[in-house]
Design goal:
Keywords: Membrane, Transmembrane, Transmembrane helix. Helices cover 26% and strands 27% of the residues. The protein is built from nine helices and 39 strands. Helix 6 crosses helix 9 and helix 7 runs antiparallel to helix 9.
Length: 500
């Protein structure tokens, strides 16, 4: 039965008599939440909606009037559930208060829906085609789904609040001005009460998550972000409750997670990141539980990890580019466990940073790999030597050659043994003359050499004999070498004690 109902519209007054047949079907089905399906076949492509005629067309202004007037039936849950329709004109719900679910699936939108500062319950646009979506400052009391949608303009939820999950899986979005490196998806400063599911999403233009807060996790696994030379993913200041999963991500353009807070995992397993003319990955000043780059392709572009705190870092040496910035990066565990020789070349790609060597040495020390720890510490001192003035470098060289800065104590023993052998043989073949014949003890070439080499030991031989000629010069060399060896050994022991 036809109902003489007046539908209030901001721009005009629309009566029930003025509704088209498909619009009446939608209107009549709404109070009981009955679905209205205009599709000729379930598998048809909604991109063909531009050619759908009046039999499948519903005006946006009619949907607005229906949602705002909210006719109900006792004992039923009202709901807009339209499938396979062409939405002509604009669906303008700005500042509206709409509590019923809105399902517009497999639909074709002529104009961008505008939900600015509205309040909605549940929004489901699965597999629809639309020229963008404006939901700036909108509040959703349930979930929002744009799964498998295609948007030829920006999809924006900036400053929105979504009580449950936001589904963007398989969404294909692009900036309205992709050639100008515009924004394809905007979730900046959005608050989401559950998760963001954007697996398999494809975006041409910038994807913004800067300043967003997500109670659970964000998944961008298998997503394809295309914005060469620009920002592919801006997640600066992102806060998530658990993980940011970007497994299998393919990104052309810059990715930034500056100051992000991710207590769980930043999972970049099998990711491919490329921005050859600039920054490919910036994770600076962030606090992250675990960062996984397992199986990732070599990164094409600069990587910045400065001032980031990690509990675990999984990264194979081969994936790092030529420019990696590591200043003040801290981590507890480094995986996979590899020889120090495989890790050290990365630290040599920028200026000398003591902290980077200390972090690597500490990681090896925590797993009990003392040999790798010593090798890293030795490499640190050798790099530090290149920054010293000439006179200090000479002393540094002496410590390195003799005792390896205290990390090679057996080297000092080898030097002492060699010098002791040289001195013993020399003075056995060329006895030094006694200073006081008849009073001097019997010459012992071995202990005479000991007296020369070790200034802290006195066997009485050095004070009783005086070599001549070239053997006298040898004694001077042994005395000097002894002092150098003793001094460097003491310095090495002091360093070892301070490390322990």
């Amino acid at each position: 039965m036809r109902r003489p109902m007046v539908i209030a519209n901001v721009l005009e007054m629309v009566t029930y008599d003025e509704l088209t047949q498909p619009e009446r079907r939608v209107w009549d089905a709404f109070p009981a939440g009955v679905a209205v399906d205009f599709r000729a076949a379930p598998e048809e492509d909604p991109a063909e909606g531009v050619g759908w005629g009046s039999a499948r067309t519903v005006r946006g202004e009619v949907l607005r009037a229906l949602l705002l007037s909210h006719p109900t039936t006792a004992g039923e849950v009202a709901k807009v559930d339209v499938r396979g329709a062409r939405i002509s004109g604009q669906l303008d719900l700005r500042h509206g208060d709409i509590t019923c679910p809105v399902h517009l699936t497999h639909c074709y939108f002529d104009a961008e829906p505008d939900l600015y500062a509205a309040r909605l319950g549940e929004l489901h646009l699965w597999r629809s085609v639309l020229p963008g979506l404006a939901a700036v400052g909108t509040q959703f009391d349930s979930f929002v789904a744009l799964s498998e949608c295609r948007a030829t303009g920006m999809v924006s939820f900036s400053l929105a609040r979504i009580a449950r999950t936001l589904y963007l899986d398989q969404l294909r979005a692009e900036s309205a001005h992709a050639e100008e490196q515009g924004v394809a998806v905007a979730l900046n400063h959005t608050v989401i009460g559950d998760a963001v599911v954007a697996t398999g999403m494809s975006a041409r233009g910038e994807v913004r998550l800067d300043g967003a807060t997500v109670t659970a996790q964000v998944s961008l696994s298998s997503a394809r972000l295309h914005n060469p030379g620009g920002m592919a993913l801006n997640a600066e200041g992102l806060t998530v409750g658990s993980d940011l999963t970007v497994r299998g991500l393919y990104a052309q353009g810059r990715i930034t997670l500056r100051s992000a807070r991710i207590p769980g995992q930043l999972d970049l397993t099998e990711a491919r990141l490329s921005n050859p003319d600039g920054m490919a990955l910036r994770v600076s000043g962030a606090v992250i539980g675990e960062m996984w780059l397992r199986g990732a392709a070599p990164i094409d572009g600069i990587v910045n990890l400065r001032r980031t705190q990690l509990q675990l870092l999984y990264a194979e040496p081969a994936l790092w580019p030529e420019q990696v910035r590591l200043g003040e990066l801290t981590y507890t565990t480094l995986l996979p466990h590899l020889p120090a020789a495989d890790r050290l070349p990365l630290l040599e790609r920028e200026e000398y940073l003591p902290h980077a060597y200390q972090q690597l040495a500490a990681a090896y020390q925590r797993v009990g790999d003392d040999a790798a720890t010593r090798l890293v510490q030795l490499a640190k001192h050798r790099r530090h030597r290149t920054t010293l003035p000439a006179y200090a470098r000479a002393w540094s060289w002496a410590q390195d050659i003799t005792v390896g800065y205290g990390f090679r104590p057996l080297r000092a023993a080898a030097w002492l043994g060699a010098l002791l052998l040289i001195g013993t043989l020399t003075y056995a073949l060329r006895n030094p003359a006694p200073l006081k014949p008849g009073e001097a003890p019997d010459l012992n070439p071995l202990f005479y050499t000991f007296d020369l080499l070790l200034p802290i030991i006195d066997f009485g031989q050095e004070r009783a004999y005086a070599p001549h000629g070239w053997s006298q010069w040898l004694s001077y060399a042994l005395i000097i070498s002894g002092w150098l060896l003793v001094t460097t050994i003491v310095a090495g022991i002091t360093r070892a004690i301070s490390r322990s």
